[in-house]
Amino acid sequence: MIDSNIKMTRRSFLGTVGTLTSAMLLAPRRLPAKESRLLLRPIPSSGERLPVMGMGTSRTFDVQGDSAAMGQLAQVLATFFDNGGRLIDSSPMYGSAESVVGKLLGLERGKSRLFAATKVWTDGRTDGIAQMERSMQRLGVDVIDLMQIHNLRDWETHLPVLGEWKQKGRIRYIGITTSHGRDHEALAKILQTETLDFVQFSYNIADRTADERLLPLAADHGVAVLINRPFQRGSLFKKTQGQGLPAWSAEFDCHSWAQFFLKFIIAHPDVTCVIPATSKVKHMVDNMAAGVGRLPDADLRRRMVAHVASL
Ligand SMILES: NC(=O)c1ccc[n+]([C@@H]2O[C@H](COP(=O)([O-])OP(=O)(O)OC[C@H]3O[C@@H](n4cnc5c(N)ncnc54)[C@H](OP(=O)(O)O)[C@@H]3O)[C@@H](O)[C@H]2O)c1
Question: What is the DSSP letter of 21?
């Protein structure tokens, strides 16, 4: 449920953002009807089905006080919901991102479909609880759908608290995250010994370390998988700049390099949801299209890896 302190309407907010260009407002926000069926994947611990395309907020939503950027992100968020998106991933580590998401959600008609994912990123039980309370206020929600322990930080302290909050109904799912290869061994141990609903780590066409242990382990233990850094923080596009897509990418309904990278990830059967971050409406439209249509099979995925390595 959305915080009643957020009283601005979408119209009045956009009215204050004088720098929104007409091109931005006219940008196509919705995929053609026949394509707008996002693929869904079940969360193993509950069976609830989630769209494979989620959204990250690191850096892109850390824009408190910048009204032009807020106006642009209002459109990005509307495009995400209009195309069937639900899961938004944030963290207290991302500066003002949680507050910006909360403020923009107050204006967003798609907000009832929100699946709010954020993180606890501090040491100690008391500070962890205070931080989670703050995240709820900032996001303007009564229940956090997924609370994750960020980068394994003080996880042995936070995990029992998350269990208590889940029992009380303040959070619905428990997860843990990293984006560092050095954490993979510790994360593998946690997956084997603790009860989790979700795990989040990096996986992309250029960094496939998670193929070896984390993806199979998550599947064996019935844990949903969120994939961060699908574009290696954007650096994958440097490799493909000026390069056309191979003709065979049409075999899996792929029309851009972003879709090439995202479909590679989504096609892994053990991935539940991928969370690319963007500050642009046209990129959101592009990314959401990766979640519809055909996906590459195992042979095509191998071909995709070889092709990108050869560029
Ligand atoms: N330990 C953790 O828990 C952890 C660590 C890392 C990340 N995460 C989560 O994962 C999310 C994603 O990772 P990330 O933000 O580091 O990197 P990312 O999603 O791999 O890359 C984001 C970059 O890609 C660009 N981009 C997005 N869509 C594009 C498109 N269609 N065409 C061209 N460029 C595009 C964005 O620029 P534009 O703004 O110009 O589109 C941005 O610079 C984060 O936002 C965060 O929520 C979690």
Answer: -
Q: Kindly state the average pLDDT of the residues 104-114.
A: 86
Q: Whose CA is nearest to atom 47 of ligand 1?
A: 56
What is the mean predicted confidence (pLDDT) over 19-29? 47
Residue-wise pLDDT for 240-255, tens only, equals 999 999 999 999 999 9
Neighbours of 49 (CB within 10 A): 13
Measured from the CA of 226, which atom of ligand 1 is nearest?
A: 10
Nearest CA to ligand 1 atom 48: 228
Out of 57, 96, 259, 280, mutate this one to test ligand 1's pocket (max ligand atoms within 8 Å of CB): namely 280
Q: Which residue type does 30 have?
A: R
Residue where the block lists tokens 């997956």: 191
Ligand 1, atom 4, lies closest to the CA of: 179
Instruction: Assess contact for 161 and 130: CB atoms under 8 A.
Output: no
Question: C-alpha 268: how far from its chain's center?
Answer: 16
CA-proximal residue: ligand 1, atom 1 (nearest): 178
List of domains in the chain: 50-234+266-293 (3.20.20.100)
Q: What is the value of pTM for the model shown?
A: 0.91
